[in-house]
Amino acid sequence: MPPGCCPVSAQEMGPPASKWHLAIRPQQWAYSKWWAPLILANLSCSSSDQVTVHFINRDGERLTATAKEGQSLLEVVINQNLAIDGFGACEGTLACSTCHLIFEKDAFQKLDAISDEELDMLDLAYGLTETSRLGCQVCIKKSMDGLTVRVPMDVSDMRRQLEVGKQSKQ
């Protein structure tokens, strides 16, 4: 579960509960300290934990998605099956720049610090701006509700260059 949604750590849960422990019987109520946090944590997750994110696609189309705290923007695009061509070719392994997104300045300033690895990948991105980030590296927070990000017009996708190279050899 995403951080902030179900804040029960493995240490707080104690040893794993068996099916026997999950049965509600008065003589076993003492075991409730092991499984009650699990039930209470799952009850606390609701639609109010959803964050709305808007993507402005290359063609200007506005795509709206809901996300859970802790998901990356790449996961949002994949999980919501948003039609953004070529987005996330490396599946979030920080080996490409196809999930390049452009943020509004105020939203960009509120993001977590950028890593050197992400900066290296951004150097390969087309249409790089001062407020560019990789969607695989930006995780959703409740404070991002209503966030709008723009997908750059061009994408640097080595798969296309490899396909062109294969076709020219034929």
TrEMBL record:
GO cellular component: mitochondrial matrix
Regions that span the bilayer: none
Pfam assignment, any one: Fer2
Domain of life: Eukaryota
Signal sequence, start to end: none
Annotated GO MF terms: 2 iron, 2 sulfur cluster binding; electron transfer activity; metal ion binding
GO biological process, alphabetically ordered: P450-containing electron transport chain
Record key words, sorted: 2Fe-2S, Iron, Iron-sulfur, Metal-binding
PROSITE patterns, per the entry: 2FE2S_FER_2, ADX
Location of the 2Fe-2S ferredoxin-type domain: 51-155
Names of required cofactors: [2Fe-2S] cluster
Keyword Iron-sulfur included in the entry's annotation: yes
InterPro entries listed in its UniProt record: 2Fe-2S_ferredoxin-like_sf (IPR036010), 2Fe-2S_ferredoxin-type (IPR001041), Adrenodoxin-like (IPR001055), Adrenodoxin_Fe-S_BS (IPR018298), Beta-grasp_dom_sf (IPR012675)
Gene3D superfamilies: 3.10.20.30
PANTHER family, sorted: 2FE-2S FERREDOXIN-TYPE DOMAIN-CONTAINING PROTEIN, FERREDOXIN/ADRENODOXIN
Name of protein: 2Fe-2S ferredoxin-type domain-containing protein
Organism encoding this protein: Amazona collaria
